[in-house]
Request: fold
Amino acid sequence: FQRAYDQLNHDIARMKLPCLIGIDRAGLVGGDGATHHGVFDIGLIAPIPGVVIMAPKDEVEAQKLINTAYYNKDYPYVMRYSKNKVINTHQHTDETIKLGQWELIKEANDAVINVVTYGDNVNAVVEIAEADHLPINIINARFIKPVDTEMLERISDKPIIVYETDLINGSLGSIMSLYYEKNHIDVDMSFIGIEDHYVTFGDNESLYKQEHISLNDLKNKIEEIKHEKRKN
Reply:
């Protein structure tokens, strides 16, 4: 996609042409090599006016987002997905998803933190939350652009962790922060993501630990916020 930036910017988005672009290998790609990590696309695409960025959590949601793009042809769409999780499971559905609508995928009665994430990370966070009985609500930010402003205001009453395995610069967290700032909404936000450097070669498990974006890092951040809340 890095080499196709001008085509999206000048030849598609500027003329508001309806299309659907699939971006394969989103996120860290392990053994594919250091130059192949798909962690730059959000920061590249988000500033382009009118482009919708989607990140499905699984194959079923991917089909619904594809339907959304085909039935609502007012925008160019970009759907990003990893090489690990998208499998042809022959999903047959005519369902669509309202443009920009996020999903409160798990709500805990004792929740003290809202975790916002997308893509493969959604189900992974749900699994650890259920296994470890974490006091969190989990929000599936399946549209990175446009963001769900109703959901943003709804979750602003609790500390928010934006859990991303892409670059922090130009991330969903950046987009959310700008919305809160522009609308003078006071919110406690924490960010997990890749810092301002290139990621080296290695298997994903090792790279997640090295970059401090593993699920254990998320659990540690949750514990840190819980501790701070107890002190206050």
The longest strand covers residues 160-167.
